Amino acid sequence: xxxxxxxxxxxxxxxxxxxxxxxxxLFYGSSSLRLWTTLSEDMAPWTVVNRAFGGSTLAACVxxxxxxxxxxxxxxxxxxxxxxxxxxxxxxxxxVRSLRTLLARIDTTLGSIPVAYIxxxxxxxxxxxxxxxxxxxxxxxxxxxxxxxxxxxxxxxSMLGPDGRPRAELFDTDGLHLNARGYQAWTHMLRPYVxxxxxxxxxx
Length: 204
Known about the structure:
Radius of gyration: 16 Å
Number of helices: 9
Strand content: 5-15%
Oligomer: single chain
Order of helices and strands: HEHHEHHEHHEHEH
Largest sheet: 5 strands, parallel
Shape: globular
Number of strands: 5
């Protein structure tokens, strides 16, 4: 976990020098969220906070939770993680266990706040892992559907073209990260969920 430290420490500093408003919708996970530089504008008028860090796995999200998420006192959380776990060779069952552990940490630390999990995306760079991606996504969907105030956001299907393969126009040249068009697509897919999460927060 040491190689995450420089970025984690920068995010920790934000929590003290520019603390986010309590009760915001917090985005947490890997670089697909970290690189979303227009997130606040794309999700306006709802207040969102981005505490994603590059290369993060679900295991890393659990490890750094108390340092990055707890101080923000979010009203709800949007998660994107698991993609890098698969890229690192972890088995789907191990990834699902990490997700279960992270959800338990949320409940223990923050209470039963609303949580949305974004499905692992179908990227050209990891298309060879698509069977494993689907196994994790199916398990995550079942887990979130059983969770009170849980949401599963399926971006997988909408990111496939008519040929059943990833839409290359949504990805950067590395075939893994999203480009501007990819984030536009995610904005369209995520805004209804962020509206619900923000509304659930306001009703608490």
